[in-house]
Design goal:
12% of the residues lie in helices and 48% in strands. The chain is mainly beta and 347 residues long.
Length: 347
């Protein structure tokens, strides 16, 4: 009977087709007043509450509990931090017990600092325990460096004078960007995909994100580009300053582009179809304005920081993909076919 279910369901979906995606707003429980998100992953998120006051709190919210950076880890961290996995946070510039560091991590509730053995400026975290960033000083060769917290091993990469690791995925693959300057498209950067089997040149551009299928995003002054293994590089977006680009495991891409001083938020479907992000969202109260977006790589849900014009405070909310009516009807038709099949078998 399982075979009948699978076939009927696949036929129903195949006949339905898919329309323009839409996302429905759902309010979230606020962990504090004036809250903003800055990283999401594995059903967890990082946020700051009491923004703009002397009582700012940085929190890691998980399904099991909420961690306070100060109370639980003796940490003071800026925006240079993010979710690597449900057990792993990466930390860039921060203070731990009042001591300055450029790299650190929290793994299963415990703080660690790789700089006790070697210098590292962390810029990303990925998998279940990899820190990515750079080592070296101004005026010298700057290496792209990956640190494995489980083995304590550092790996260095250099494809040009200045190199860094902007992002990686769960499988341990990561991007290395290399150019005349760090973290800017004006330094003529080039990007490489590094995996356990070697590396591949992705062309000119600065690395932005990579999903678990090694599909990567890069940006140049000439646009936003998508690299998919075994396929030609695709130019998703045109001229402008693209930034904050994110790609989910299903291929959904969200990015912001600055054109003549005006910022536009764009969403691209897996086939490259481009949309104005704000045309796709529904149910958002009129007093809320999107300030920042974080795409969940696994679920395609979008977690947002909103500004509430009624209170002049920030708050967080969720935008969930809405199944299209045609898809729902097709699913219903598939289930009906299964039931008819059952009746025939019973007869």
């Amino acid at each position: 009977m399982r075979v009948v279910w699978t076939v009927a369901l696949c036929v129903a979906l195949g006949e339905a087709g898919f329309a323009v995606p839409h996302y429905k707003y759902t309010p979230m429980a606020q962990p504090g007043a004036n809250t903003g998100l800055y990283s999401v992953g594995d059903s967890t998120y990082l946020c700051a509450t009491n923004i703009g006051t002397s009582d700012v709190k940085q929190l890691w919210v998980t399904p099991e509990r909420t961690y306070d950076f100060v109370k639980d880890f003796s940490l003071s961290v800026g925006s240079q931090a993010g979710v690597g996995s449900k057990d792993f946070l990466w930390l860039g510039t921060h203070l731990h017990n009042g001591v300055y560091s450029d790299a650190g991590y929290i793994y299963k509730g415990q703080y660690g600092d790789p700089r006790t053995t070697r210098s590292l400026h962390a810029m990303s975290g990925f998998g279940d325990g990899f820190l990515g960033g750079r080592t070296g000083t101004a005026g010298s060769l700057v290496y792209a460096t990956v640190y494995d917290l489980h083995t304590g091993v550092f790996q260095d990469y250099a494809f040009g004078p200045k190199n860094w690791v902007p992002c990686g995925n769960r499988n341990g693959a990561f991007l290395v960007s290399s150019g005349d300057e760090i973290l800017t498209v004006f330094g003529s950067p080039e990007t490489y995909l590094v995996t356990t089997s070697g590396y591949q040149y992705l062309g000119r551009g600065m690395g932005e994100d990579i999903n678990d299928h090694n599909v990567a995003l890069t940006v140049t002054l000439g646009g936003l580009f998508k690299f998919e293994p075994g396929k030609a590089i695709v130019r998703l977006g045109g001229d402008g300053q693209w930034a904050s680009s994110q790609i989910s495991n299903s291929g959904i891409v969200i990015s912001a582009v600055n054109i003549n001083g005006v910022v536009y938020e764009r969403l691209f479907e897996a086939d490259g179809t481009e949309h104005n992000f704000y045309d796709l969202i529904e149910g958002v109260p009129s007093n809320l304005t999107v300030q920042a977006v974080n795409l969940d790589h696994d679920t395609d849900e979008i977690y947002c920081t909103f500004k509430n014009s009624s209170t002049n405070l920030y708050e967080i909310g969720n935008l969930s993909p809405v199944p299209e009516p045609a898809t729902l009807l097709a699913l219903g038709g598939g289930l009906a076919a299964i039931l008819r099949r059952r009746r025939k078998l019973a007869g």
